[in-house]
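[User] Could I get a sequence and structure tokens?

[Assistant]
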Amino acid sequence: MEDRPPDESALMRGVFEASPDAIVVIDADGRIVRANAQCSAVFGHDPDDLLGEPVEILVPPRLREAHPARRGAFTGGGGARAMGLLQLAAVRADGTEFPAEISLAAVSHDGEPLTCATVRDVTARLALQQESDRVREELLATVSHELRTPLTSIIGYTELLLDLGESQVGPAARRMLAIVERNANRELRLVNDLLDLAFLDDREHMDAEPVDLVEVVRAAVDGARVGARGRGLELSSTLAAGVAPDGARALLVTGDEQRLGQVLDNLLSNAVKFTAPGGRVLVDCAPREGDLALSVSDTGTGMEAVEVPRIFDRLYRSPRAVRDQVPGAGLGLSIVDSIVRAHGGRIEVDSEPGVGTTVSVLLPARVEPVA
């Protein structure tokens, strides 16, 4: 029996009716010319009753006046433009509103321009997401309280004991308390890093205001100076005087000053950890093709090219860090990456074994003088 291709028009009608989403086809005047069976489940309208009706019948009354202009912006102006998925409000036959994900596509039939709208009710999905967010927030609050509170208490009492005189705390006990304090601080940093990663997945936790990177650099370098000196390193900054290379008094970005400070703190901490005594760490910030490039360079151990793409993965530790037992959980650079992406920036890494590493954070920015 000879195979025969399916009737194309019958196939397309079958696909149209079998879609799990509501589909309406709208003419140039904004009237519905086709509607599939799923419109009954999504909108509560019989598909045949929708034919000839203005598409605004599916739009909440509060939005109907402005809708023709929005519709015209899609279909007019010298040809349709793809808009992809939109999340908008829609209305059922009984007047109840619901959140809908809508995809629009321009089509043509017998020379007549049409718009095909695919509509998906996302009420259940958003409710599930909201419940998931609520549970997540509760879990983070519990973790924060149940882990950070006792660790903070342990550290506090350990510090008090270490402050006692030799007659009350002997040398052996003092060594053991120092170990307790060191490990408690390590665990507290790990808990804080995990909580940071959880919160950074949501950009609502990021502030957006003008930030002067000159001040961020100055504060971070001051904070890292003691640790660098303790390892016998030279730590310097091109912004030590608080002046940008072009003479501007500020290098401005829009973002969260605390989080950007955290980026630089983590980069400096890594540079200090992986640079041998006698080495140098340099912090630089300067305009670069419309961005601001915030760079940390060191004369440390450097990395092989195959390692570079993995250093921002969560929990990744380089073979050298594992071999040399360098402290860390492999979360610092992942936090840096999350913060930079939340600011619309990107990271570049230039590294060579035995020579050193330069990590550059590029942020959308403008350079303005301070009044």
About this structure: Residues 123-162 form the longest helix (40 residues). Residues 77-84 have pLDDT under 50 and may be disordered.
